[in-house]
Protein backbone atom coordinates (compact mmCIF):
# COMPACT_ATOMS: atom_id res chain seq x y z
CA UNK A 1 0.00 0.00 0.00
CA UNK A 2 1.14 3.61 0.03
CA UNK A 3 0.48 6.60 -2.15
CA UNK A 4 -1.86 9.47 -2.26
CA UNK A 5 -2.80 11.23 -5.49
CA UNK A 6 -0.95 14.35 -6.66
CA UNK A 7 -3.93 16.40 -5.63
CA UNK A 8 -3.87 14.88 -2.18
CA UNK A 9 -0.12 15.12 -1.90
CA UNK A 10 -0.20 18.87 -2.47
CA UNK A 11 -2.91 19.30 0.17
CA UNK A 12 -1.25 17.31 2.93
CA UNK A 13 1.21 18.78 5.39
CA UNK A 14 4.46 16.92 5.88
CA UNK A 15 4.53 15.63 9.44
CA UNK A 16 7.67 13.60 9.57
CA UNK A 17 11.42 13.30 9.31
CA UNK A 18 13.25 9.98 9.83
CA UNK A 19 14.60 7.65 12.55
CA UNK A 20 14.89 9.86 15.54
CA UNK A 21 12.89 12.58 13.81
CA UNK A 22 9.19 12.20 13.13
CA UNK A 23 8.02 8.91 11.65
CA UNK A 24 4.60 8.52 10.12
CA UNK A 25 2.30 5.70 11.10
CA UNK A 26 2.73 2.70 8.87
CA UNK A 27 0.74 3.28 5.72
CA UNK A 28 1.20 3.41 1.99
CA UNK A 29 1.23 6.74 0.19
CA UNK A 30 2.66 8.13 -3.05
CA UNK A 31 1.82 10.25 -6.05
CA UNK A 32 -0.62 10.04 -8.88
CA UNK A 33 0.12 9.66 -12.59
CA UNK A 34 -1.25 8.38 -15.87
CA UNK A 35 -2.52 4.88 -16.62
CA UNK A 36 0.36 3.83 -18.81
CA UNK A 37 1.36 0.71 -16.91
CA UNK A 38 -1.25 -1.57 -18.39
CA UNK A 39 -3.39 -4.26 -16.78
CA UNK A 40 -7.06 -4.24 -15.87
CA UNK A 41 -7.28 -1.91 -12.88
CA UNK A 42 -10.82 -0.61 -13.37
CA UNK A 43 -11.98 -2.08 -10.11
CA UNK A 44 -8.80 -3.55 -8.65
CA UNK A 45 -8.19 -0.75 -6.13
CA UNK A 46 -11.67 -1.02 -4.64
CA UNK A 47 -11.42 -4.80 -4.63
CA UNK A 48 -8.07 -4.68 -2.89
CA UNK A 49 -9.31 -2.24 -0.25
CA UNK A 50 -12.35 -4.42 0.42
CA UNK A 51 -10.25 -7.55 0.68
CA UNK A 52 -7.81 -5.84 3.01
CA UNK A 53 -10.58 -4.77 5.37
CA UNK A 54 -12.28 -8.16 5.42
CA UNK A 55 -12.05 -10.00 8.73
CA UNK A 56 -9.84 -7.33 10.30
CA UNK A 57 -9.37 -7.32 14.05
CA UNK A 58 -11.73 -5.02 15.98
CA UNK A 59 -9.03 -4.30 18.56
CA UNK A 60 -7.84 -0.68 18.48
CA UNK A 61 -4.46 -0.02 20.08
CA UNK A 62 -3.49 3.50 21.17
CA UNK A 63 0.13 4.30 22.04
CA UNK A 64 1.25 7.40 23.92
CA UNK A 65 3.43 9.15 22.85
CA UNK A 66 2.70 9.33 19.14
CA UNK A 67 5.15 7.82 16.69
CA UNK A 68 8.13 10.11 16.12
CA UNK A 69 7.59 12.31 19.17
CA UNK A 70 10.52 13.95 20.96
CA UNK A 71 11.14 15.57 24.35
CA UNK A 72 8.83 13.04 26.02
CA UNK A 73 8.70 13.13 29.86
CA UNK A 74 10.52 10.26 31.52
CA UNK A 75 7.75 9.84 34.10
CA UNK A 76 4.18 8.98 33.08
CA UNK A 77 4.78 9.94 29.44
CA UNK A 78 4.40 6.43 28.03
CA UNK A 79 1.41 4.09 28.03
CA UNK A 80 -0.60 1.73 25.84
CA UNK A 81 -4.37 1.20 25.84
CA UNK A 82 -6.74 -0.92 23.78
CA UNK A 83 -10.47 -0.85 23.04
CA UNK A 84 -12.56 -3.73 21.67
CA UNK A 85 -9.84 -6.17 22.65
CA UNK A 86 -7.13 -7.08 25.16
CA UNK A 87 -3.39 -6.54 25.08
CA UNK A 88 -1.36 -9.73 24.76
CA UNK A 89 2.19 -8.40 24.39
CA UNK A 90 3.95 -5.06 24.80
CA UNK A 91 7.69 -4.56 24.27
CA UNK A 92 9.55 -1.32 24.96
CA UNK A 93 13.28 -1.15 24.17
CA UNK A 94 15.88 1.61 24.17
CA UNK A 95 18.03 2.18 21.09
CA UNK A 96 20.78 -0.05 22.51
CA UNK A 97 18.37 -2.97 22.78
CA UNK A 98 17.78 -2.78 26.53
CA UNK A 99 14.26 -3.98 27.41
CA UNK A 100 12.11 -1.84 29.71
CA UNK A 101 10.03 -3.72 32.27
CA UNK A 102 6.31 -3.02 32.32
CA UNK A 103 2.99 -4.63 33.19
CA UNK A 104 -0.27 -5.26 31.36
CA UNK A 105 -3.20 -4.42 33.65
CA UNK A 106 -5.29 -7.27 35.04
CA UNK A 107 -8.15 -6.45 32.67
CA UNK A 108 -5.80 -6.45 29.66
CA UNK A 109 -6.81 -2.93 28.66
CA UNK A 110 -3.63 -0.98 29.41
CA UNK A 111 0.13 -1.15 29.92
CA UNK A 112 2.78 1.15 31.36
CA UNK A 113 6.47 0.86 32.25
CA UNK A 114 7.41 -0.04 35.81
CA UNK A 115 9.82 2.87 36.28
CA UNK A 116 10.92 6.16 34.78
CA UNK A 117 12.65 6.07 31.41
CA UNK A 118 16.15 7.40 30.74
CA UNK A 119 16.63 10.98 29.60
CA UNK A 120 17.86 11.81 26.09
CA UNK A 121 17.15 8.27 24.90
CA UNK A 122 15.35 6.87 21.87
CA UNK A 123 12.80 4.08 22.49
CA UNK A 124 10.82 1.73 20.27
CA UNK A 125 7.50 0.27 21.39
CA UNK A 126 5.62 -2.67 19.85
CA UNK A 127 2.15 -3.73 21.01
CA UNK A 128 -0.08 -6.67 20.11
CA UNK A 129 -3.75 -7.16 21.01
CA UNK A 130 -6.54 -9.61 20.19
CA UNK A 131 -10.28 -9.07 19.80
CA UNK A 132 -12.93 -11.47 21.08
CA UNK A 133 -12.56 -13.60 17.94
CA UNK A 134 -8.81 -13.98 18.52
CA UNK A 135 -7.83 -11.75 15.58
CA UNK A 136 -4.59 -9.87 16.17
CA UNK A 137 -3.86 -6.16 15.82
CA UNK A 138 -0.39 -4.58 15.94
CA UNK A 139 0.93 -1.06 16.55
CA UNK A 140 4.50 0.28 16.59
CA UNK A 141 5.89 3.59 17.76
CA UNK A 142 9.27 5.22 18.38
CA UNK A 143 10.05 8.34 20.42
CA UNK A 144 12.84 10.20 22.21
CA UNK A 145 12.77 11.35 25.84
CA UNK A 146 13.54 14.91 26.88
CA UNK A 147 16.91 16.51 27.48
CA UNK A 148 17.75 19.68 29.44
CA UNK A 149 16.64 22.96 27.87
CA UNK A 150 20.18 24.33 27.55
CA UNK A 151 21.62 21.29 25.77
CA UNK A 152 21.13 19.39 22.52
CA UNK A 153 21.70 15.77 21.53
CA UNK A 154 21.92 13.95 18.22
CA UNK A 155 19.84 10.81 17.76
CA UNK A 156 21.88 8.74 15.32
CA UNK A 157 21.52 5.65 13.19
CA UNK A 158 22.93 3.00 12.74
CA UNK A 159 23.57 1.77 16.28
CA UNK A 160 26.76 0.50 17.86
CA UNK A 161 27.67 -2.98 16.62
CA UNK A 162 24.85 -3.14 14.08
CA UNK A 163 25.37 -4.84 10.71
CA UNK A 164 23.62 -2.93 7.94
CA UNK A 165 23.28 -2.89 4.17
CA UNK A 166 25.52 -0.97 1.78
CA UNK A 167 23.00 1.86 1.34
CA UNK A 168 22.74 2.86 5.01
CA UNK A 169 23.83 6.47 5.56
CA UNK A 170 24.86 7.80 8.94
CA UNK A 171 21.86 9.95 9.82
CA UNK A 172 21.85 12.27 12.83
CA UNK A 173 18.68 14.02 13.98
CA UNK A 174 19.15 16.78 16.54
CA UNK A 175 16.45 17.40 19.10
CA UNK A 176 16.83 21.17 18.79
CA UNK A 177 17.41 23.46 15.77
CA UNK A 178 21.12 23.99 15.07
CA UNK A 179 22.17 27.56 14.28
CA UNK A 180 25.92 26.99 14.05
CA UNK A 181 25.90 24.04 11.64
CA UNK A 182 29.58 24.59 10.81
CA UNK A 183 30.71 24.12 14.42
CA UNK A 184 28.49 21.10 14.95
CA UNK A 185 29.56 19.37 11.74
CA UNK A 186 33.22 20.04 12.52
CA UNK A 187 32.77 18.08 15.76
CA UNK A 188 31.50 14.98 13.92
CA UNK A 189 33.60 12.64 11.82
CA UNK A 190 32.62 9.53 9.86
CA UNK A 191 35.29 7.24 8.42
CA UNK A 192 35.33 3.87 6.69
CA UNK A 193 37.90 1.09 6.73
CA UNK A 194 37.45 1.05 2.94
CA UNK A 195 39.06 4.48 2.66
CA UNK A 196 36.02 5.93 0.88
CA UNK A 197 35.57 9.68 1.15
CA UNK A 198 32.60 10.43 3.42
CA UNK A 199 30.82 13.80 3.29
CA UNK A 200 28.06 15.34 5.41
CA UNK A 201 24.94 17.07 4.07
CA UNK A 202 22.33 19.04 6.04
CA UNK A 203 18.63 18.58 5.43
CA UNK A 204 17.23 21.60 7.21
CA UNK A 205 18.75 22.59 10.56
CA UNK A 206 18.05 19.40 12.55
CA UNK A 207 19.24 16.57 10.31
CA UNK A 208 22.77 15.81 9.13
CA UNK A 209 23.49 12.75 6.96
CA UNK A 210 26.85 11.29 5.93
CA UNK A 211 27.53 9.04 2.90
CA UNK A 212 30.25 8.18 0.39
CA UNK A 213 29.89 8.83 -3.34
CA UNK A 214 28.92 5.22 -4.06
CA UNK A 215 27.39 2.67 -1.71
CA UNK A 216 29.61 1.55 1.16
CA UNK A 217 31.98 -1.25 0.26
CA UNK A 218 30.68 -4.62 1.41
CA UNK A 219 32.18 -6.03 4.61
CA UNK A 220 33.78 -2.74 5.62
CA UNK A 221 33.64 -1.04 9.02
CA UNK A 222 32.33 2.49 9.57
CA UNK A 223 33.12 4.66 12.59
CA UNK A 224 31.10 7.67 13.77
CA UNK A 225 32.75 9.99 16.28
CA UNK A 226 30.67 12.59 18.10
CA UNK A 227 32.75 15.21 19.95
CA UNK A 228 29.84 17.51 20.72
CA UNK A 229 30.33 18.14 24.42
CA UNK A 230 30.75 21.87 24.90
CA UNK A 231 29.99 22.70 21.25
CA UNK A 232 27.48 25.55 20.95
CA UNK A 233 24.75 24.53 18.54
CA UNK A 234 22.67 27.67 19.12
CA UNK A 235 22.93 30.62 21.52
CA UNK A 236 22.88 29.16 25.03
CA UNK A 237 22.41 25.57 23.77
CA UNK A 238 25.43 23.28 24.14
CA UNK A 239 26.19 19.75 23.03
CA UNK A 240 26.59 17.01 25.67
CA UNK A 241 27.70 13.97 23.65
CA UNK A 242 31.19 12.51 23.36
CA UNK A 243 30.78 9.09 21.81
CA UNK A 244 32.32 6.72 19.29
CA UNK A 245 30.05 4.33 17.41
CA UNK A 246 31.26 1.53 15.15
CA UNK A 247 29.06 -0.52 12.84
CA UNK A 248 29.58 -3.10 10.12
CA UNK A 249 28.58 -3.12 6.47
CA UNK A 250 27.34 -6.56 5.44
CA UNK A 251 27.13 -8.16 2.02
CA UNK A 252 25.99 -5.99 -0.88
CA UNK A 253 22.30 -6.42 -1.71
CA UNK A 254 20.42 -4.18 -4.12
CA UNK A 255 16.93 -5.14 -5.32
CA UNK A 256 15.41 -3.60 -8.45
CA UNK A 257 11.63 -3.31 -8.72
CA UNK A 258 10.40 -2.86 -12.31
CA UNK A 259 6.82 -1.64 -12.18
CA UNK A 260 6.26 -2.44 -15.86
CA UNK A 261 7.36 -6.07 -15.75
CA UNK A 262 6.01 -6.30 -12.18
CA UNK A 263 9.06 -8.21 -11.02
CA UNK A 264 11.81 -7.56 -8.48
CA UNK A 265 15.35 -8.76 -9.13
CA UNK A 266 17.39 -9.33 -5.96
CA UNK A 267 21.13 -8.96 -6.61
CA UNK A 268 23.66 -9.92 -3.96
CA UNK A 269 27.38 -9.29 -4.35
CA UNK A 270 26.89 -8.76 -8.08
CA UNK A 271 24.97 -11.99 -8.70
CA UNK A 272 21.21 -12.37 -9.24
CA UNK A 273 19.92 -14.19 -6.17
CA UNK A 274 16.20 -14.32 -6.90
CA UNK A 275 13.47 -12.85 -9.10
CA UNK A 276 10.17 -12.20 -7.33
CA UNK A 277 6.78 -11.24 -8.82
CA UNK A 278 5.39 -8.07 -7.22
CA UNK A 279 2.38 -5.77 -7.29
CA UNK A 280 3.33 -2.08 -7.09
CA UNK A 281 1.26 1.12 -6.95
CA UNK A 282 -1.83 1.29 -9.13
CA UNK A 283 -1.95 3.76 -12.05
CA UNK A 284 -3.93 6.13 -9.80
CA UNK A 285 -1.40 5.78 -6.97
CA UNK A 286 1.97 4.83 -8.49
CA UNK A 287 5.14 4.02 -6.58
CA UNK A 288 7.97 6.53 -6.44
CA UNK A 289 10.96 5.90 -8.68
CA UNK A 290 14.44 5.96 -7.21
CA UNK A 291 16.85 4.38 -4.76
CA UNK A 292 15.24 3.69 -1.41
CA UNK A 293 16.91 2.35 1.72
CA UNK A 294 15.20 -0.02 4.13
CA UNK A 295 15.06 1.95 7.40
CA UNK A 296 12.77 -0.21 9.56
CA UNK A 297 11.55 -3.80 9.63
CA UNK A 298 8.37 -5.12 11.29
CA UNK A 299 7.29 -8.75 11.24
CA UNK A 300 3.73 -7.40 11.51
CA UNK A 301 2.39 -3.86 11.72
CA UNK A 302 -0.74 -1.79 11.17
CA UNK A 303 -1.31 0.24 8.01
CA UNK A 304 -4.07 2.83 8.22
CA UNK A 305 -4.95 4.83 5.11
CA UNK A 306 -6.32 7.73 7.15
CA UNK A 307 -2.81 8.63 8.36
CA UNK A 308 -1.74 9.54 4.82
CA UNK A 309 -4.91 11.09 3.43
CA UNK A 310 -6.84 8.03 2.19
CA UNK A 311 -10.18 8.63 3.89
CA UNK A 312 -13.67 7.51 2.92
CA UNK A 313 -16.88 9.53 3.22
CA UNK A 314 -17.07 8.66 6.93
CA UNK A 315 -13.60 10.01 7.58
CA UNK A 316 -12.14 6.57 8.15
CA UNK A 317 -9.24 5.06 6.28
CA UNK A 318 -9.95 3.52 2.88
CA UNK A 319 -7.97 0.62 4.29
CA UNK A 320 -6.98 -0.28 7.84
CA UNK A 321 -5.01 -3.50 8.04
CA UNK A 322 -4.01 -4.43 11.58
CA UNK A 323 -1.58 -7.23 10.71
CA UNK A 324 0.39 -6.41 7.54
CA UNK A 325 3.16 -9.04 7.40
CA UNK A 326 6.87 -8.54 6.77
CA UNK A 327 6.76 -4.75 6.39
CA UNK A 328 9.96 -2.82 5.58
CA UNK A 329 9.91 0.97 5.46
CA UNK A 330 11.35 2.71 2.38
CA UNK A 331 10.30 6.33 3.00
CA UNK A 332 9.21 8.66 5.77
CA UNK A 333 5.97 9.43 3.94
CA UNK A 334 4.78 5.84 4.09
CA UNK A 335 6.33 3.79 1.29
CA UNK A 336 6.87 0.17 2.31
CA UNK A 337 7.79 -3.10 0.68
CA UNK A 338 5.62 -5.63 2.49
CA UNK A 339 3.79 -8.90 2.41
CA UNK A 340 0.23 -9.01 1.06
CA UNK A 341 -2.11 -11.87 2.07
CA UNK A 342 -5.39 -10.23 1.04
CA UNK A 343 -4.66 -9.89 -2.68
CA UNK A 344 -5.36 -12.78 -5.03
CA UNK A 345 -2.27 -14.79 -5.98
CA UNK A 346 -2.85 -13.83 -9.61
CA UNK A 347 -2.05 -10.11 -9.09
CA UNK A 348 1.63 -10.67 -8.32
CA UNK A 349 3.60 -10.29 -11.50
CA UNK A 350 0.55 -9.24 -13.51
CA UNK A 351 -1.13 -6.08 -12.18
CA UNK A 352 -0.26 -3.12 -9.94
CA UNK A 353 -2.96 -2.64 -7.32
CA UNK A 354 -1.54 -0.91 -4.22
CA UNK A 355 -1.68 2.65 -2.89
CA UNK A 356 2.01 2.97 -3.74
CA UNK A 357 3.81 0.31 -1.73
CA UNK A 358 5.49 -2.73 -3.26
CA UNK A 359 3.55 -5.87 -2.35
CA UNK A 360 4.86 -9.43 -2.16
CA UNK A 361 2.76 -12.58 -1.91
CA UNK A 362 2.46 -13.58 1.74
CA UNK A 363 0.34 -15.39 4.33
CA UNK A 364 -1.73 -14.01 7.20
CA UNK A 365 0.13 -14.27 10.48
CA UNK A 366 3.60 -13.87 8.91
CA UNK A 367 4.53 -17.44 9.84
CA UNK A 368 4.78 -19.17 6.44
CA UNK A 369 8.50 -19.31 5.51
CA UNK A 370 7.70 -20.39 1.95
CA UNK A 371 6.14 -17.08 0.86
CA UNK A 372 7.91 -14.39 -1.14
CA UNK A 373 7.23 -11.83 1.59
CA UNK A 374 8.82 -14.00 4.27
CA UNK A 375 11.84 -14.84 2.11
CA UNK A 376 12.59 -11.21 1.29
CA UNK A 377 12.14 -10.13 4.92
CA UNK A 378 14.49 -12.80 6.23
CA UNK A 379 17.07 -12.05 3.52
CA UNK A 380 17.07 -8.26 3.97
CA UNK A 381 19.03 -5.99 6.27
CA UNK A 382 18.28 -2.49 7.48
CA UNK A 383 20.26 -0.43 4.98
CA UNK A 384 19.67 -2.65 1.94
CA UNK A 385 18.65 -0.77 -1.20
CA UNK A 386 15.40 -1.20 -3.12
CA UNK A 387 15.47 0.68 -6.44
CA UNK A 388 12.19 1.31 -8.29
CA UNK A 389 12.29 1.87 -12.06
CA UNK A 390 9.78 2.47 -14.87
CA UNK A 391 7.09 3.97 -12.68
CA UNK A 392 5.09 6.91 -14.10
CA UNK A 393 5.65 8.79 -10.83
CA UNK A 394 8.55 11.13 -10.03
CA UNK A 395 11.78 10.22 -8.23
CA UNK A 396 11.56 10.21 -4.45
CA UNK A 397 13.11 13.21 -2.69
CA UNK A 398 16.50 12.61 -1.04
CA UNK A 399 15.24 13.55 2.44
CA UNK A 400 12.09 11.41 2.26
CA UNK A 401 13.58 8.54 4.21
CA UNK A 402 17.26 7.62 4.18
CA UNK A 403 17.35 8.23 0.46
CA UNK A 404 20.17 10.71 -0.15
CA UNK A 405 21.45 8.47 -2.97
CA UNK A 406 18.92 10.23 -5.20
CA UNK A 407 21.04 13.38 -5.03
CA UNK A 408 24.12 13.68 -7.24
CA UNK A 409 27.51 13.62 -5.53
CA UNK A 410 28.19 17.17 -6.74
CA UNK A 411 24.96 18.44 -5.14
CA UNK A 412 25.62 16.46 -1.98
CA UNK A 413 29.06 17.98 -1.52
CA UNK A 414 27.98 21.47 -2.51
CA UNK A 415 25.43 21.80 0.31
CA UNK A 416 23.54 22.86 2.14
CA UNK A 417 26.31 21.80 4.49
CA UNK A 418 28.53 23.46 7.02
TrEMBL record:
Name the residues annotated as catalytic in the UniProt entry: 338, 357
List the signal peptide residues. 1-27
Which intervals hold domain L,D-TPase catalytic? Answer: 253-389
Instruction: Extract the ranges annotated as region (Disordered).
Output: 132-151
| Ranges of Polar residues composition bias in the record | 140-150
- Provide this UniProt record's keywords sorted from A to Z: Acyltransferase, Cell shape, Cell wall biogenesis/degradation, Peptidoglycan synthesis, Signal, Transferase
This chain belongs to the protein called Ig-like domain-containing protein
Organism equals: Streptomyces polychromogenes
Amino acid sequence: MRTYSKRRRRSLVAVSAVLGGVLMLSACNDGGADKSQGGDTSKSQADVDAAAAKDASKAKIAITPKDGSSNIPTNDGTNVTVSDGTLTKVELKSSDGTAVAGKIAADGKSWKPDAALKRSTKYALAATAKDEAGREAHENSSFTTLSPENSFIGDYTPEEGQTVGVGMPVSINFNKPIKDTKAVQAAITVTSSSGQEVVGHWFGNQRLDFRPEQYWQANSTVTLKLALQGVQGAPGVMGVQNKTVTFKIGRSQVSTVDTKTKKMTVTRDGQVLKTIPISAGSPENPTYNGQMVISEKFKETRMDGSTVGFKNSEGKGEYDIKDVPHAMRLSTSGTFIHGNYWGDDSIFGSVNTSHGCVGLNDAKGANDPDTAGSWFFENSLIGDVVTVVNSPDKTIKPDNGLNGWNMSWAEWKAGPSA
